[in-house]
Amino acid sequence: MVLRTIDWDSEKNTIHLVDQTLLPAEYKTIECSTVDSLCEAIKTLRVRGAPAIGAAGAYGIALAAHKSKASTALELLDELESKAAQIKSTRPTASNLSFSVERVINTIKSVAATKADIIDVATEEAQLIADEDIIINKKLSKRGAELLEDGDTVMTHCNAGRLACVGWGTALGVVRSAVEDGKEIRVVACETRPLHQGSRITTYELMEDKIPVTLITDSTAGYMMRRGLVDKVIVGADRITEDAVFNKIGTYTHSVLAKEHDIPFYVAAPASTVDCKHSEDEITIEERDPDELRYFKGSQVAPYNVPVYNPAFDATPMENITAVITEKGVFQPPFLIEELII
Ligand code: MRU
Fold this sequence. Notes:
Elements: E1 6-9, E2 14-18, E3 29-32, H1 35-43, H2 50-67, H3 73-88, H4 95-111, H5 115-145, E4 153-156, H6 171-180, E5 186-190, H7 197-208, E6 213-216, H8 221-226, E7 232-235, E8 239-240, E9 244-248, H9 251-260, E10 265-268, H10 291-294, E11 295-296, E12 299-300, E13 313-317, E14 323-326, E15 329-331
Parallel strand pairs: 4-5, 4-7, 5-6, 7-10, 10-14
Antiparallel strand pairs: 1-2, 2-3, 8-9, 9-13, 11-12, 14-15
Helix pairs in contact: 2-3, 2-4, 2-5, 3-4, 4-5, 5-6
Bound molecules: 5-S-methyl-1-O-phosphono-5-thio-D-ribulose.
5-S-methyl-1-O-phosphono-5-thio-D-ribulose (MRU) binds near residues 164, 170 and 247.
């Protein structure tokens, strides 16, 4: 088992990542040696989760720089800008992807003068982004762990664990830190239709770490809350704007249920998820292939031509959120969005 979900191969100048479409049946890493293969891996969710695709995007620029045949620094920079646009377009909702890609491009522009400089700076900055991910996640997890009490049962949706990041995790990182602090925490994992990140990945990670986890269908959440079987809800985020948190489709429904049952609803995410420039209505929600609902692992589960609506994410209004946890602190709405990142 590798410790990082995604890593740079400094001998071959390629990217290695865990192919998450195969989990839990198979734990296998694949190698991306072209930007096209990396983009395919992001689009098909071989690598997924906002922080992990952020690191993937940053490594993608390093990959493009190493593989480029450009003859001048200017030509190389032009080429990297176009690869940056290609990478950013793979998944529009998570802000970490564009944040990391732009961070690498901006660092190159500010410090690199020659072709060799550009290649070195791109590689170093991408490595830094990936290394920082684990450090930041541990920091926000320590803050978040203080909100969990010994004996808590915590519900989560999708996968915001180490496989959604370079390592450690955000929502599941908070659970890991609380367990490290000696608290007994049980997790309820919602399966997360249609791609089952909860049942395939969250349960897998937690069972590996020997943290007690129970799998439920997404529609069991309300019944469990009504019966008093959930103490807290904690999820990750793909983007946080001044008025909403974007996360896997179904998150909003859980937030409404949590509010109805007076259950604290927490969001844990790094500051790179925060978008200070836009509000809810301006964000593009990724819509995925209708066949994700018509077929399951190749078996038909709906009429092949039934019209489908398949948004990958939803937006939870800030008023449904008890607190947002970033590496900078724990913030209870209402707050100024800038406070989350300073
Ligand atoms: O479509 P996915 O699997 O990339 O969606 C992932 C999520 O919605 C996660 O909750 C989010 O990215 C936070 S991961 C730390």
